[in-house]
Write a structure and sequence with these properties.
The chain is mainly alpha-helical. The protein contains 5 helices and no strands. Helix 3 packs across helix 4.
Length: about 80
């Protein structure tokens, strides 16, 4: 995947994440995501093929980001009591 393609994919993910959080899954359309991300609908379909797959990708990325944050916190504060 080229850098531009990766940038477009990440832009779509970030815009869709905000729209899904604001409007919910049912209240967010692919057209709305494309418009907000300033890409065409075909680009969204190229990268994700469906709204469901885009939503799934957002959940996977969110889980990975959260896990990384927890691991970083655990490395900084080895005792649970220190984290709390």
């Amino acid at each position: 995947m080229t850098d531009q393609s990766t940038d477009t994919k990440m832009k779509i993910i970030e815009v869709a994440r905000v729209l899904f959080a604001t409007n919910g899954f049912e209240g967010t359309s692919i057209r709305e995501i494309a418009r907000a991300a300033e890409v065409n609908v075909a680009s969204v379909n190229y990268h994700f093929s469906s709204k469901e797959k885009l939503f799934h990708e957002i959940l996977i990325k969110g889980h990975a980001d959260c896990s990384a944050d927890i691991e970083a916190m655990a490395a900084k504060f080895p005792k649970l009591e220190d984290i709390l």
